[in-house]
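# nightly structure sweep
# worker-07 picked up a monomer target from the shared queue
# config: single-sequence mode, recycle default, output format = structure tokens
# input follows
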Amino acid sequence: MRRWGVLLLVGAFSLGVAQSWSRDAVDSLMREGIVYGYPSGEIKPEAYARRGEVFTLLWRVILTYRLKDLQSLTKEDIERLKGLLATAEELSRALRDQGQVLSAYSDAIKELRQALEKAQADATALAGEAGKKAEEALVQLREWSERLSNLEAATYKGLRDFREEVNMLAGVIRDLDGKVKALEEALTGKTGEISTRFAELQGALARLEGAVSKAEEEIAGVRNFLARLDELSLRVGTLEEQVKALKEEVAKLRAEMPKREVLSPFGLQVSLSGISPLAGMMRVGYALSEGFGFYLRGAYDLGFYGAVGVVSVHQASPFTLTTTLGVGRGFYGPGFTYGELGVGFGGKLFGALGLGAEGVLSFPIGTGPSVARFGVGVIYGW
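# output follows
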């Protein structure tokens, strides 16, 4: 119904129908705010409507009905819309917060990667230093062990001598005691001689006490040395555990490091070109570990052909790509000198043996025909 009303309105304006019967429609549209008229205040129902005026009338009709739909909303609908807007704002804030958290996580991951790389470098450096320190500690431990053995031997010898001396002194004391008693019985009146011998006995006892004190000091020193030795043993045990952990870490890092493939220095390829049963090529060369070297080539198709040049070898196991550049001589016709460019591709099947294909373009230096050779055959090395 809306579309038909708009079409009738446009038709009325475009066909220039008389104002007498369209006045009610015009008044209703003006009340609805769809028609405003020209700046002069005239409606001009008999004039033709342009496209821009038609588009404007259509948009005003659509906007009027949309406003009516909005006016029909209840208070509950408006509250629901406000709740939806609040939920959308909360989701937006949550997404921004999650974006900040993810950015923080990304920064933390970068810092962890940098710390891991630094720890790997420090572990590699510490592995060598810890090994040297462990060896020095072991040498020092051997020296302390030797000193301890010597000290123990000396201590045991001193204690044995001390015991023998104590036993000897005890025997002397017993003898003296017996002699004193005998003297007391035999010479009751010779108190002076007895006092002198008693003083000698007291001096012997004093010397004995000094020897005992000295032995106790030596034993205390041995105990301190043993305590220090236990401390050194604990430190050595800790160092050994650290060295073991470092060795395990180094072994783990070495296992994680990518292994570098070693390029075979020699390369041989024998190919058939398919021109005739005897037509083919053979290439032999030598390359350094960096992939650069030289080669020799021989071929037979139009006649005998020989070339020498440089080669570049790229290996990605089990495949190999070779690029050759050299000069050659064709021994057919009057003889021609060539410059050649070749590209080969191969794959290993059993050890250094595999299959390969190679294409060579020989272009004359001077006069002569250009020759393109392509062969498939067996390779060894590259």
